[in-house]
Amino acid sequence: MNPPQSSKKSPLSQRVVRGDFKVGHLPGFGAWTFLVFLYLYLPLIILIIFSFNANRTVTIWEGFSLNWYAEVFKSEPIRRAALTSLLVASIATVVATVIATLAALTLVRGGKFKGKNLASATLMTPLMIPEIVTAVATLALFTAIGASLGIGKVIIAHCVFCIPFAYLPISARLQSMDSSLEQAAHDLYANDWRTFRRVTLPLLIPGILSGAILAFIISMDDFIITLFVAEAGTTTLPLYIYGLVRVGVTPEVNAISSLMLAVSVIFVLLSFIIGRKQ
Amino acid sequence: MMRSANVKRWLGLSPALAVIGLFMIVPIIIVIVYSFLAKDPYGGVEPQFSTEAYKQLLFERDFDDTLLFSTVNLKIFWRSVWLALVTTLFSLVAALPVAYYIARQPEGRKNTLVLLVTIPFWTNLLIRTYCWILILRDTGLINGLLQRLNLIDSPITLLYTNGAVLLGLVYSYLPFMVLPLYASMEKLDMKLLEAAHDLYANRWRVFRRVSLPLALPGIVAGCVLVFIPALGAFITPQLLGGGKNLMLGSLIQMQFGASRNWPFGAAMSLFLLAFVLIALVLYARSPAQRDGNLI
């Protein structure tokens, strides 16, 4: 975490200095920001620290131990839940990313056409509708159909809400890309497909990767929609953790939670680094 | 030429629209239908028109089948709306200085700090909420610490209170407030602040009379983005409220679980959705929101 420090070299346009008076600087805001970051991160740090605690009672520190992580890796139900989560997230990520890429190419590069605004608003509906309503609605749909799809239900539900998360970085990347490169390729007699494969796609890859990673994290983390839609036997990691947490605090929960936290953070950082690369 | 462009557009958009239409829009229509059907006591619905679910929002059936006005559900709605509003307010107060501070930092630090705000958003909400159980429960960190310092004899109840739910809700949705606020404060023209200083306004006056009004679109966006998920929150009230301080989300979930009253659950989901749509429309129409997007 960055402690607040206010005296650093910065461009004149950002901070106009007149003697020791800084325009736009307000006393105490740095300290307040530090406290808010503490509020955001301290609980996570506490969780990670206690996941290494030798004591079973979880509250009192008794020494460093990797015991609970060993338990997690030995546990058969956790392994099964992890595999279920990975399977669902992988399929949902691929499907959502392909769909989102096609949609982004059409909406950003396809010029103006009727219904464009409506189409982009429809793409964002999974973000605007409260998760619990989506959960109820998806459950209602599968009940109305009546077919038993097993894990397929969870995969379908995840594909839907992953689309906007994959779409946003891809379309942002497309918007920032210079379309004159594609025009140049056309001028050099490349057909549409060739232009797409040799010019647009290579430039778009960082956006696509970034979107895919975000879709993957969102799918791995989803709880409410999965809770409603999953049949008995389809247990993802968050569902399994929820089951444990409801019974009580155990050191195993700390360890598996810390692991999931680490995976999310690594993926976000990856997405951030890839998305920023020019 | 024109036609081939249209075909391509259709090919590009149809998978996305088909998936979202089929698995998002159609299901909501089914929920509307379900809310007007009779309940199947074993879960699900019976194909029979009924407005019972909507009556149940406000009334209770007596033993002899007369409708009695009941405030049980109203109280839960009210608690949800109230908690969501207070969450929004607290988040706004906590986030304003943060967004303003980050926006005034040099480029590199700015990006790092924004990333730090974003990371909690991408980590599992269930796990983030669970952390607070470790801290707040009777044998948790705070009580343990206070007892070790001999400040209290027996643990004070922190978990399973409205306060715990509020703390968890603010914790969950604070990033949604910081980001739009930051986006609008980052665009702030420093020359305007300078001009205000030239006219002898002090720092706080400049903040209140220049920076804040200019950041209004971000403030409105942040409030909408926090209020909507807070109103439908499920995990936080469930884990930190302990099932006794019910919110709308838990009440809906119960209808599809133990209570087996799907039509009522469907009606309540629509009620929540209506609330959200009203908030979104008000937001889209707000004068502060002429050129921005939702995020």
Write up what this structure looks like.
The complex is a heterodimer of chains A (278) and B (295). Chain A folds into two domains: 17-51, no CATH class; 70-276, MetI-like (MetI-like fold, Orthogonal Bundle). Chain A is built from eleven helices and two strands; from the N terminus they run E-E-H-H-H-H-H-H-H-H-H-H-H. The longest helix of chain A has 34 residues, at 76-109. In chain A, helix 3 (76-109) crosses helix 6 and helix 3 (76-109) packs antiparallel against helix 8 (192-221). In chain A, strands 1-2 form a two-stranded antiparallel ribbon. The two termini of chain A are 27 Å apart. Chain A is an all-alpha fold and 278 residues long. Helix content of chain A is 72%, strand content 1%. Chain B is mainly alpha-helical. Chain B has two domains: 1-27, no CATH class; 36-285, MetI-like (MetI-like fold). In chain B, 71% of the residues lie in helices and 5% in strands. Chain B has 13 helices and four strands. In chain B, the strands form two sheets. Chain B has a two-stranded antiparallel ribbon with strand order 1-2. In chain B, a hairpin with a 5-residue loop joins strand 3 (59-61) and strand 4. In chain B, helix 1 packs across helix 13 (262-285) and helix 4 (107-122) packs antiparallel against helix 7. Mean pLDDT of chain B is 86; it is low at 291-295. Classes of the chains: A mainly alpha (278), B mainly alpha (295). Chains A and B meet through helix 1, helix 3, helix 4, helix 5 and helix 6 of A and helix 1, helix 3, helix 4, helix 5 and helix 7 of B.
